[in-house]
Amino acid sequence: MSRIGLKPISVPAGVTVTIADDNKVTVKGPKGTLERAFNKDMIIKQEGTEITVARPSEDKMHKSLHGLTRTLINNMIEGVTNGFSKKLEVVGVGYRAQKQGKNLVLNIGYSHQVIIPETDTIKIEVPDANHIVVSGADK
């Protein structure tokens, strides 16, 4: 029995969840839109402000997908409401990070600088040379 898969997912106000016939779930919220296609065997139902995930049989694969599907949908809802954030610390002599326009420029021991562009969905902040904050709606 999947303890995680049996829990219903509550949909907060301001979030719209659309479930297509082929188990393609689209979640729209204040931080953006996320969509993902899930296994066609899983039974995903929305009743009011709750989403439930069920499995068709006790097959090993269905048991594995049951909790995974529920967790991924819950993470999608969490991402479009609150967003995700990761704080990174750059440690080392001569290692530093800086923001140039929309690019993150890292000096981390290579003979060249590592440049990572900021996207529409992922925001990068550099409060000082040793700390980076990456945030967005999707992990």
Distance between the termini: 28 Å
Q: How many strand segments?
A: 12
Low-pLDDT runs: none
Taking strands numbered 1, 2, ... along the chain, how are they ordered across the largest sheet? 1-6-5
SSE class: alpha+beta
| Percentage of residues in DSSP E strands | 35-45%
Q: Order of helices and strands, N to C? A: HEEEEEEHEEEEEE
Query: Looking at this structure, what is the CATH superfamily of the largest domain?
Result: Ribosomal protein L6
Average of pLDDT: 92
Number of domains: 2
Q: Specify the overall morphology.
A: elongated
Which fold name corresponds to the CATH topology of the largest domain? Outer Surface Protein A, domain 3
Note the total helix count: 2
CATH class of the largest domain: Alpha Beta
* Helical content (DSSP H or I, runs of 4+): 10-25%
Radius of gyration: 19 Å
Give me the CATH architecture of the largest domain, please: Alpha-Beta Complex
Q: Outline the biggest β-sheet.
A: 3 strands, antiparallel
Outline the structure in words.
The protein has 139 residues and is of the alpha+beta class. It folds into 2 domains: 3-82, Alpha-Beta Complex (Outer Surface Protein A, domain 3); 85-136, Outer Surface Protein A, domain 3 (Alpha-Beta Complex), CATH 3.90.930.12. It is built from 2 helices and 12 strands. The protein has helices at residues 3-6, 60-81, and strands at residues 9-10, 16-19, 24-29, 32-37, 43-47, 50-54, 84-89, 96-100, 103-107, 114-117, 122-128, 131-136. The strands form 4 sheets. A 3-stranded antiparallel beta sheet has the order 1-6-5. Strand 8 and strand 9 (103-107) form a beta hairpin. The longest helix has 22 residues, at 60-81. The two termini are 28 Å apart.
